[in-house]
Batch of 2 targets.
Target 1
Amino acid sequence: MRIMLWAALLALVAAPMGASAKELSGKELFEANCAMCHGKDGTVSDYGKKLKPFPARNLRAVAPFVDRDELRRIITYGVKGTAMTPKKYTLDPLEIEEVIDYIKTFDYKPNLANGKKRFEAVCSTCHGMDGRAKTGVGAKNLVYSKLDLKGIIHTIRYGRPGTLMTSKRHQLSNADIADVAHYVYSLRYKASPERGKALYQKNCASCHATPGDIRLIGNAAQRRKISDLDDRLLDLRIRHGRHVERAGEHITKLSDDDVQDIIAYIRASTGKQ
């Protein structure tokens, strides 16, 4: 009897262990824990669209551009004030990583027409219709931004503390954010070292044969070389440096794009990108 009792107890223990030993794929875990709101393909279910106070997010639109750390935090701890509850009680850490792996397989084809429309409606007041930010409010010139798509999407979603750039994640859907980001990226001015070289020869070479011949003066000379200056300081030096009076008024007539081309040539010549 004692042996039979121990055998029965072992059977009871072994059964759930065997069941839990089955490893589910990230896709299966996603479908069991996330698809009710986000849809099986990540584009939001009908149920998810009706959630209050905010609908579920389209994961497919931003998954390629959101870091694993952020996805892990959201899945593990949820998002306060939304229907996204913590999943740390239903998924263990390894299962969460499996879900993230699956989400990371999602792709998204941006709609630039929608991006342009939403940019003009939400962003142009500060950044201008062309993204060059000549609006007088101190917004960033998006045409010369160095942010990659991840950086643009993060900025749209969360804003920039201490500036007028506020979070747009409750004003724009994830698809809108992805579309706007791709549209903003399409506005990027592609500075040309070749054009910059021609402009440099015309406007600068009479005093500085090559960018490597430029010598800083004053306090800057004690700490930096021309290649150490960031784009903003290079722009200021080209437009407003002490050389302007010697070089002539034509320097002040260089366009914004001309200056970017000259900077690109300086970077290429000095080996400091």
Target 2
Amino acid sequence: MNLRGRALLAFGAGVLLSFAFPKFDLAFLAWVAVVPLLLLLEGRSAREGALIGFTFGLGFFGALLIWISIVGWLAWALLVILESSFLGLFGALYAVTVRRSHLRSHLPSHLMARVLAAPVLWITTEFFRARVPLGGFTWGQLVQSQHNLTFMLKPAALAGGWLVTFLIVAANALVAESFRDRKRGVVRSLIPAGLAGVLLLLPFAVPANHSGERALEVAIVQGNVPLDFEGSLYEKELEIIRSHAELTAQLEPGSVDLVVWPESSVGIDLGEDTIVEGLVTGAAEAVSAPIIAGVNLDVDNDHYKVMALLISAEGKIIDAYQKTHLVPFGEFLPARSALDWIPILDQIPRDAIPAAHPVVFDLEGSKIATVISFEGDFGSLVRERIDLGGRLLVVATNTSTWGDTGASPQHLAFSQIRAVENGVWVAHAAISGISGFIAPNGDVVERTRLRTADVITQEVFFADDITPYARMGDWLPLLCMVGSVLLVARSVRAGTDKVRA
């Protein structure tokens, strides 16, 4: 098959993989959709591997992130191209490691090296993708496709979502071996496929996370965003605040221990507007419970802060969390002076300011870790807050821009993974949905619908202990980075020795 044919097949396989993710949630496709890519890369040069991996990425990210087109097709295209380049890197590295004759051998040691190469290189490139450029982008991590299979998520408690991804890619590599061995007999070809099945059953052996002892009754208030609002921006923001305040006031006083308002639920600086201050204060007093509210605070005409405020039952601000990991081209414009001539970037008139360090809220002696929207997509970032003492996680987000697309369920899926990784309950509050409570095993035990104003309550528990991943961090991707260097060096050395011979 020529290179063009391989690239087209890779593109189709990438599209197929996207169906494993929300909203389609055909999770099993992730166990086989990488197989065509691995087979198409066999025997290719690094340049050809890069092209095949890149076209696989175009199909995958192009379909998965189609909702980005709501803010412009150019933004969608640029993001898809950027993220696909990381799969191009994977394609180049994998092609190099499997093209040498010593790795195409059927000796057990060589087969093991080939099977391990796929997950080791995949996690290495996915780890880089989560960090560069501009702080990285994590959407499309393979673990996200397994969010509703709680048995598959269990290994995340040991090594983060990376370990789940490792198992998925390794299973794909074993199925690829079955195809390679099909000419050596049916029995021989079925052995790797059987091993893949065993690999996917291993998560059953991992103990599930359990809830702690101290209970907390929590309410999530989803005030919603009015559609086709005809008033001014100030009037729209005031309507959103009023919706959250009125819904909160409907709760019976003393019936809950904590109320959570989503990101952007208070879009007007309550320190500069007495009406807003009165609405927020009155809501806390009416329910007789503290509120964690997503707030934007003005700094000057060109800058603001994205915050989560802890407001006491008496309506006083007792602590504040400022977002540390901002959304590039969403909450700030990199190199503004060089790019502000681009018309579409008028949608980002001013820049948010990040905090240097996170804050963990103290609620009567128990710690609550809070992250805001995009931050919840990063396992490494969330676990740092849990390691700082957080034993309950609050994710405040605003996905209202994306409407009824895959963005909201995909974001909720990340919170399911964070729950398992850290062994904590999660209150995922989205201003227009989907909001939900997530148990430490990843189950969504209560949720709202999109585009509705609603209140949900749930008894949650502060964790008594945290997981090995929350304590030790990203040891697996770091190990995979070392393994990637060794695999590529081994392959290059083998090629050099062959030339000398």
